[in-house]
Amino acid sequence: xxxxxxxxxxIGGVTLIGVVxxxxxxxxxxxxxxxxxxTRLVRAEPIPDFxxxxxxxxxxxxxxxxxxxxxxxxxxxxxxxxxxxxxxxxLWLAKDxxxxxxxxxxxxxxxxxxxxxxxxxxxxxxxxxxxxxxxxDIIPKELVLVQAANESAWGTSRFARQGYxxxxxxxxxxxxxxxxxxxxxxxxxxxxxxxxxSQGVAKYLNTLNRHFAYQDLRYIxxxxxxxxxPITAEMLAEGLLHYSERGQAYVEELQAMIRVNRKHMKYxxxxxxxxG
Length: 276
Hints:
Blueprint: H1 3-27, H2 56-94, H3 104-116, H4 126-135, H5 141-152, H6 158-163, E1 170-171, E2 177-178, E3 190-192, H7 197-210, H8 215-226, H9 233-237, H10 248-274
Antiparallel strand pairs: 1-3, 2-3
Domain Mannosyl-glycoprotein endo-beta-N-acetylglucosamidase-like: 112-251
Transmembrane segments: 9-27
Pfam family, one: Glucosaminidase
């Protein structure tokens, strides 16, 4: 074979290999997203004695500083779950919405999340993904902080001090918590007791995200997401009408607490950043 011809063939072959190598990742089918890490680490340190603070400002800042890291951690877990669901939804769409678009492990994990958030899972569909994504989303930390302050009397209630229950959460199994001292004879609820702050915060967030009483909160949040508006504490507080028998008065009190305590929550955030 002529030398120049061999040279041209060699150069052409190298070029072809380079082109294929460049295009190879784009020619492959969409790859499954990495599994989301959902382990909820336990934080069971002693609760500070918030009643010992003489200055109101110091008490508020200490309270917010204690709760803030756990709230952010639990919201990060929820956000990682949401990201995982969105990735599976994209994969399903990329594979023409076929029933077998997900592998067994992905399908099983999706079923677990559906159960955790109380969403029926008859199979993959746009309706299913939309319902699940409506529930799997964050709660603004400012709302969590002021509701904890409101429900626990700034961390001084016995439910908070002895059971990591900063949100007045109830349970209905005998022995699951504290029997309220002023419980009516025809009532059987208890105030839940948790093993750690992690468990208490996680249970509260999960309740807001799955219980039918807070579907207004989730609707408001979904609309804000869809219209690309910030998910604010003041807006989502409007969805807590059924959290208290006080209804609208309770909502307005929370919104006022958000405004009054914003500077203290900002201080807690700045301290957290400084302390790493």
